[in-house]
Each structure stands twice: as structure tokens, then as C-alpha cells.
Amino acid sequence: NADLTFRVKEANSLFETLGETQPKGGGNDGGISREDTVYDKATELLGRLPEDYTEDDYKAKIRKLGGMTVPMNIFLFQEIQRLQNVISKVRFILTQLQLAIKGEVVMTAELQETLDSMFDAKVPHFWENTLTGDEFSWRLPTLGLWFSSLLN
What we know:
The chain has helices at 2-21, 34-48, 55-64, 71-102, 109-119, 125-128, 143-151. The protein has seven helices and no strands.
């Protein structure tokens, strides 16, 4: 079992490396460019993102449930804050990515990695981890599954 697990991880790593080394630009045959595809996907995702949670609103609702003396309410409060951080980060990065594609802001390494990941239908690394490598959100294999999980 350990050998099988090792070989599956190695194969997945190989496929990921192959995907990352594929040409990203190149000949434009008159079709839709990578940037246009990702821009449209970013527009779609921004339209589906939920509104920001208002701290006063959810604090009032938690007070109705017994306040912050109830351990589950403390957990709920922390999870709402965590979810709000994820929503804010995704909204900011998608907005910045659209501006970078239009040429209005500089295309940073983070935005380029986001563009490449979204084009490949993968979750951008910066949506799952902080800059220090700490886990920021949940891990799922595809962008569609990850975003559906965010909405649910």
C-alpha cells in the first residue's frame, strides 16, 4: 500500500510538472486568448461570489444564540471570520487579475500564477495558502470544486 501511494504521488507530481512546463503563450490562431478566457472566468466567479459578511450582523445573530460564552458560538464566529477572509482575498485577486489583463496594473508573479492556474482549471496556490505557506482555506483538486465548496 505504501509503495502504491508513493507511486501515485510521483505520477501526479510528474503530470503536474508536465502541465506547468507546457507553453503558455505562442501563436494566436484567431481564437480566444488565454487572458480573455481567464478574464471571462474571473468575471463569472466575481458574479457568483457571495456578499461580504457584516461583522455587526453575525455578532448580533450569535448573541441571539447565547453569545460568545457558548463554545460552538466561538467556533462559528471564527469560521465566519475565516470564510470572510477567503471571500475577500478571492475577490481582491480576481479584481486585480482583471485589471492586470487589461493592462491597468502590473501583472505580478501572484497574478500570473493565478492566471495560469485558472486557465488550467486548478485552484491558485494563493487561495489555499498564505505567503508563509500556512493553510488559508480548504484543498480540492479543481477550481470548480473549490469554488462550489466556497459557495456552499
